[in-house]
Write a structure and sequence with these properties.
Layout: E1 8-18, E2 23-25, H1 26-32, H2 38-45, E3 49-51, H3 59-73, E4 83-87, H4 98-105, E5 113-117, H5 123-136, E6 142-149, H6 160-163, E7 169-179, E8 185-192, E9 200-201, E10 219-220, E11 226-227, E12 233-234, H7 236-258, E13 267-270, H8 275-285, E14 292-293, H9 296-299, H10 306-316, E15 325-332, E16 336-343
Parallel strand pairs: 4-5, 4-6, 13-14, 13-15
Antiparallel strand pairs: 1-7, 2-3, 6-7, 8-16, 9-12, 10-11, 15-16
Helix pairs in contact: 1-2, 3-4, 7-8
Length: 346
């Protein structure tokens, strides 16, 4: 008779980050766009500055730096990692997989699995779910979940609508197996609505619309923003409508699945889109300002990195501790959304 395996649960051990050294401030943006003052930019976005990657800072470069911080600060050896999950929408190449490059540069064993997955603002939740599945099905013991996005590579310098919002960042999370009956990461919900795909996209550069002469032809929209088809486009009004419609329902689904009420949640970290959107969400759902953690002010919208960056920031400034019951929710490009409960980090 086969020996019964011990009960294994997936747990977040640690989170670290990498931020490019170049900082884009509201003062710099106001100098470039005289019709937008420093106060107006802050009033509209709640963002004071954002980190912007340099030419040498690729997806893999930032991912490796974040992982090195994780290894150094938490005494983790590369040879302990048996799976790499890398969430990005700005990979080094169309192929090969950036996670394979990261594996080689970090000297992670060749016996490790490695894959990229293309998701934006909901990506961290999907990554946690994949890691949980790998660990609790005994396929891996230590999963390195990396987020590394640099939307600045896609943004036209003359498009103030998105340039004021987005920043670049990478994070590295270690998810490991714990011998326990307790669920440390649980109550996942997911959602997808590809009908909204065109409201946040880079139109040219894929197989449907390869880069051509047309890709470089700039045009001006009704708000004076200039971009070309190879640049990032966002329909902010439609994104807001989608978010306010879907996220409150999703939060209720998470709470129902976990058999919790809002007051049972110690802290909440949503995708850090911007102040206007998050203020509306917090009030509509009914979380308190103490529960609702924000970090967009100094980072901007860092896409897949915004939730782990927010968690790392809150742990550092002690507004979140390892025993808090944490609800996280990501939403945006795709449309794609998801959320879950995290208990006990560390």
């Amino acid at each position: 008779m086969p020996t019964k395996q011990p009960s294994i649960k997936a747990k977040i051990k640690a989170i670290e980050k990498y931020l490019p050294k170049t900082i884009l401030t509201n003062e710099q943006l106001a100098n470039e766009f005289p019709s937008w003052s420093v106060d107006k930019i802050y009033e509209k976005t709640g963002i004071k500055k954002r980190h912007i990657s340099s030419e040498k800072e690729t997806c893999s470069y930032m991912a490796i730096r974040a992982a090195e911080q994780l290894f150094k600060n938490h005494n983790i050896l590369p040879e302990e990692i048996d799976y790499i999950l890398l969430c990005t929408q700005s990979p080094d190449y169309l192929l090969p997989t950036t996670a394979c490059i990261v594996q080689n540069k970090l000297n992670i064993p060749r016996t490790a699995g490695a894959l990229d997955f293309n998701l934006g603002c909901s990506g961290y939740i999907y990554g946690l779910s994949l890691a949980k599945g790998l660990i609790e099905s005994y396929q891996a013991k230590k999963v390195l979940l990396i987020t590394s996005d640099m939307y600045s590579k896609y943004i036209n310098d003359k498009d103030k609508s998105v340039r004021t919002l987005f920043g670049d960042a990478a994070t590295a999370t270690l998810i490991e197996a714990a011998n326990s009956e307790h669920e440390f990461i649980h109550s996942f919900i997911f959602g997808t609505d590809g009908n909204g795909a065109e409201n946040l996209m880079v139109p040219h550069g894929g197989s449907k619309e390869p880069i051509s002469e047309l890709s470089y032809q700039e045009y001006e929209d009704s708000h004076g923003n200039i971009r070309s088809p190879k640049n990032l486009y966002m329909n902010g009004a439609e994104i807001l409508t989608f978010t306010l419609s879907n996220v409150p329902k999703s939060v209720n689904l998470i709470l129902d699945k976990a058999e919790l009420k809002k007051e049972n949640i110690d802290r909440v970290v949503f995708h850090q889109a911007n102040k206007f959107m998050l203020d509306k969400l917090r009030k509509k759902i009914g979380f308190t300002t103490e529960q609702f953690l924000i970090s967009y002010e100094t980072y901007g919208n860092t896409v897949s990195s915004s939730i782990p960056l927010g968690i790392n920031n809150a742990l550092d400034n002690e507004t979140l501790n390892s025993t808090h019951k944490l609800l996280i929710c990501g939403f945006g490009v795709g449309y794609s959304w998801g959320g879950c409960i995290i208990e006990s980090i560390g």
